[in-house]
């Protein structure tokens, strides 16, 4: 009996999440949401599992979050899946992280196509294994004509390197006369970044209680709203995502004005 009462108490009516989504959709939705998906390792450790079990669980959360973001009308969802610094991790973990895009896309690509999602990647391709690149390239090719949510994987991405590369290309273009130094303004510089074809994030979410940017989109996050939560990424539910969006909607963005 007690168990039945417990079960009943934990059961939410099926419409609750949908109702909340409908309410949220009445207010402005962030066009671009960026997420630092942190805490997979700690999630696994708490369960005496290997770290890669946390990454595997995290992959399922990527799926749920993508679906919900698309449903809400978010235009771009950028996910920090692997940083230029993550190569320092143990070999087996790096190898597993490099297999995740294949596993994710191998499982979910048909659904992403069905949902009109467009897959993109930003980051340095050089060091990525061929099998990883092949899976991403296939997903990008198969979804290139889709015009729903852009699911942008930041893979082997580092913001300082991105900015430095942009500076070098600006200098090259100035030297070769393609660009005049006086033409260089914020919008011109943005066009040299890996995000040249997307708006800056309106909302940054970081899970797991860490309050730092870890070399993620330093230029692009200049005016974003930040949402930090203690929830570990594998535990990040649809409700948590909606909470972050509601939090965003309750903020007053002034962009330096009053
Ligand atoms: C940070 O947690 C997480 C990562 C470096 C990997 C993120 C990858 C996923 C969420 C899997 C989904 C990826 C794809 C491509 C579908 P951490 O390992 O640093 O956690 P910790 O701080 O608790 O150790």
Notes on the protein architecture:
The protein is of the alpha/beta class and 258 residues long. The chain folds into two domains: 30-148 and 194-249, 3-Layer(aba) Sandwich (Undecaprenyl pyrophosphate synthetase), CATH 3.40.1180.10; 158-193, no CATH class. The chain is 47% helix and 13% strand. It is built from nine helices and six strands; from the N terminus they run ααβααβαβαβααββα. The protein has helices spanning 2-10, 15-24, 40-46, 51-72, 91-114, 130-143, 159-175, 186-190, 238-249; strands spanning 32-36, 76-83, 118-122, 150-157, 203-206, 225-228. The chain has a six-stranded parallel β-sheet with strand order 3-4-2-1-5-6, with helices on both faces. Helix 6 links the parallel strand 3 (118-122) and strand 4 (150-157). Helix 2 (15-24) runs parallel beside helix 9, helix 3 crosses helix 4 and helix 5 (91-114) packs parallel to helix 6 (130-143). The chain starts with a helix and ends in a 9-residue tail after the last helix. Bound molecules: farnesyl diphosphate (FPP). Farnesyl diphosphate binds at residues 37-42, 55, 58-59, 62, 81, 86, 97, 100-101, 104, 153, 208, 233.
């Amino acid at each position: 009996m007690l168990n039945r009462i417990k079960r009943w108490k934990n059961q939410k009516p099926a419409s609750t999440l949908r109702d909340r989504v409908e309410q949220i959709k009445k207010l402005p939705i962030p066009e671009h949401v960026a997420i630092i998906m942190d805490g997979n390792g700690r999630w696994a450790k708490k369960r005496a599992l290997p770290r890669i079990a946390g990454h595997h669980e995290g992959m399922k959360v990527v799926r749920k979050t993508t679906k919900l973001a698309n449903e809400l009308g978010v235009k771009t969802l950028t996910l920090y899946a692997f940083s230029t610094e993550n190569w320092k991790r143990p070999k087996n973990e790096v190898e597993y992280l490099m297999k995740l895009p294949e596993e994710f896309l191998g499982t979910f690509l048909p659904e992403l196509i069905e949902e009109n999602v467009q897959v993109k990647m930003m980051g340095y391709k050089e060091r990525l294994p061929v099998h990883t690149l092949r899976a991403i390239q296939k997903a990008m090719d198969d979804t290139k004509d889709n015009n729903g949510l852009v699911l942008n994987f930041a893979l082997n991405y580092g913001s300082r390197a991105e900015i430095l590369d942009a500076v070098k290309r600006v200098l090259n273009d100035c030297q070769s006369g393609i660009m005049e130094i006086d033409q260089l303004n914020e919008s011109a510089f943005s066009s040299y970044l890996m995000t040249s074809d997307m708006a800056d994030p309106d909302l940054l979410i970081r899970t797991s209680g860490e309050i730092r940017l870890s070399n993620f989109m330093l230029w692009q996050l200049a005016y974003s709203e930040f949402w930090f939560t203690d929830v570990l990424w594998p535990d990040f539910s649809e409700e948590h995502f909606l909470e972050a969006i509601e939090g965003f909607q309750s903020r007053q963005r002034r962009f330096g004005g009053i």
